[in-house]
Amino acid sequence: MPVKTLPKSVSVLMPLALPAPYDYEVPDGLIAEPGAYVIVPLGAQQILGVVWGEGTGEVDPKRLKPILEVLDVPPMPGVLRRFVDWLAAYTLNPRGSVLRLAIRAPGALEPQRMRTAYRLVDKRPARMTPARQRVVDTAMDQFARTTRELAEEAGVSDGVVRGLVDAGALVPVDLPTEAPFPVPDIGAVSKSLSPEQLVAAETLRKRVDENRFAAILLDGVTGSGKTEVYFEAVAEALAQGRQVLILLPEIALTSQFLDRFEGRFHCRPAEWHSELSSRERTRVWRGVAEGRARVVVGARSALFLPFPELGLIVVDEEHEAAFKQEEGVTYHARDMAVVRASLGQFPIILSSATPSLESSVNAEQGRYERIVLPERHGVAELPSITAIDMRAEPPERGRWLAPLLVNEIANALAAGEQAMLFLNRRGYAPLTLCRTCGHRIECPQCSSWLVEHRFRRELVCHHCGYSAPVPKACPSCGAEDSLIACGPGVERIAEEVAERFPEARLAVLSSDNLRGPQSHEEMFRAIEAREVDIIVGTQIVAKGHHFPWLTVVGVVDADLGLENGDLRAAERTFQLLQQVAGRAGRAERPGRVFLQTYMPEHAVMRALVAGKRDAFLRREAEARERVGLPPFGRLVGIVVSSENAALAQKFAREMARHAPRAEDVSVLGPAPAPLALLRGRTRLRFLVKATRNVNIQAYMQAWLGEMKVPAAIRVSVDIDPYSF
Ligand code: ADP
Ligand code: ZN
């Protein structure tokens, strides 16, 4: 009797908003191991997917559709597949949506393009001519070159080279079209570490050697050499044959970082961020998957690259809000990096001069190991920080800089040093007001004021990008010449600086006048080369940069971040101002930092001036613990939005009625979300607060499972919202 074998089946996850993989049949002759990239039919389409595991057996074997093709790419590593599953479950996203983050490299899965190059095999071809001889001489070194390259180097026409190919003197070889990845030179240590740095580096090296999960908070003041120290851990991981991922919060920081990496390792690492060309994305994705790229420096999405041998992650400036992905699948890249390290059983280093409250608490409670670098490297000292009480020292009318600060800038310039003014506000003025009727010009689609950008002569919404020319008359009462610009943005500060210091060379750094990493790079180089005297900038200048000639830093409005009701505001403002302050006095010359404030008695200002970071963080932590907020409790943000305001209200109320009752869980809201109107959508927010023992995902699923969301409503769920 013939034995009928069931078709072998596997489950395939597709990068679509699907919660689970689908079963497919593996036809004879195909091998589809777990992680293999495959093409499968879905309805009338053919779709790329990843083999997730054995078939579930839920589909009648006779009705299974076959896998059409298995792609010639290294399979997705098991750790990355488990990471996708974990992240999907934690953030309550369909697994397919998370998978999409891991295969976002157009072309990477297509067969690699080859170019044909030629190598010399016959030094004395028949019918030798002087032109042919030149080609032979050129090709004598046995390097493979294209016909074009050979013709150019030999100074002959392409036809001469093709003639030699036809004569069999040159034979084709296939070369990848992509540039190769250089190998880091781990032997080269150019700097000798200080005793404290050595101890720190030794500990990190040991953790890498131990080859198991460990989270280490590298907590060192700005300029203490954290980068130099963790480079030693990177070298160790590379020596062990592992790949390394370094996460940076912003693309703007990449170029200076790459230079430093090159200084230490004599090669540039692979980069991964949204500004890469698709060709470069393909190259890096493949290089990582095939293990040719040993080190990747990237933004948060680099977490989803298919490293087969990842052995160390470094999260630089771990406190940065930019690590939180706020759209689509929302996740915190620092936290998810810890998860990835834990799944992969290797160490992770979180580096910061102003650790997040979360990481500080984790270190205090022993979940993370803390390594402290308390002093700046070499002779550099931490800058002195002074609060300027703007109530006592008001600037002149229409000016924004206090006399004391202006004086300090003048002194710095006279000494041949640089000064920097920081204001975290793009544009010229944050508000345009009518003197006649009091009307404030708002964005038509958002609950926010339009910001005047004088260089562009436009009013711009910083939330949705809406823009309009600056009107001549008040749009409300029609009064002419009645609109006035209220408050300063960086452009206005630049204007004041230019008036006060007409001789000084001024650089304005804000995302409006810097497009792409290239122009950042040029600006930063110019500053380092002392082609600039005064820098006026938004948060772009706050972070990471090393400007040896910068001694005076003025914060134009130190209170800015404290105004909104966000419970993280104090922590955030402290971190930002500490980072800005850290730009001053990084070399031989001592730095002086001035905070213009109307609240010098505020805990943030007092802690900055007194240099009492740890006491400040402890008080913040105690305050959060009292009310059960993260990291002491769990928090979920839910935003209900619709273009139809009444519908949004109604649905939010209905959701509130369906909220399950559970011990240790409280539901706050619905209340207007922080941006109650955004891009024309009315937004209402719930905050779900729970103790740490609660399975908040299960709670959320129970709740959302009850709700039928109408098409005109969007409900977005944010586990661990950054702002609360
Ligand atoms: P951090 O990352 O803590 O702000 P960096 O690693 O950027 O500190 O170091 C600050 C500056 O001091 C850099 O220019 C760095 O090259 C230099 N530096 C740090 N440690 C050493 C060392 N051991 N020898 C020479 N230069 C060092
Ligand atoms: Zn808007």
In short:
This protein has 724 residues and is α/β, with parallel strands linked by helices.
Question: Which key features would you list for this structure?
Answer:
724 residues, alpha/beta, Arc Repressor Mutant, subunit A, Rossmann fold, 5 domains, 7-stranded parallel sheet, 6-stranded parallel sheet, 19 helices, 31 strands, binds zinc ion
Give the rounded overall mean pLDDT: 91
| CATH-level-4 superfamily name of the largest domain | P-loop containing nucleotide triphosphate hydrolases
Shape: globular
What is the strand content? 15-25%
Q: N-to-C terminal Cα separation, in Å?
A: 69 Å
- Please state the CA-atom Rg, rounded to the nearest Å: 30 Å
DSSP, total strands: 31
What does this structure look like?
About 45% of the residues are buried. With about 725 residues, this protein is an alpha/beta fold. It is built from 19 helices and 31 strands. The model has no long low-confidence stretch (mean pLDDT about 90). It has five domains: about 10-105, PriA, 3(prime) DNA-binding domain (GIY-YIG endonuclease, 3-Layer(aba) Sandwich); about 115-175, Arc Repressor Mutant, subunit A (Orthogonal Bundle); about 195-375, Rossmann fold (3-Layer(aba) Sandwich), CATH 3.40.50; about 385-425 and about 490-625, P-loop containing nucleotide triphosphate hydrolases (Rossmann fold); about 635-720, Alpha-Beta Plaits. A seven-stranded parallel sheet has the order 10-11-9-12-15-8-16, sandwiched between helices. A six-stranded parallel sheet has the order 17-27-26-18-25-24, with helices on both faces.
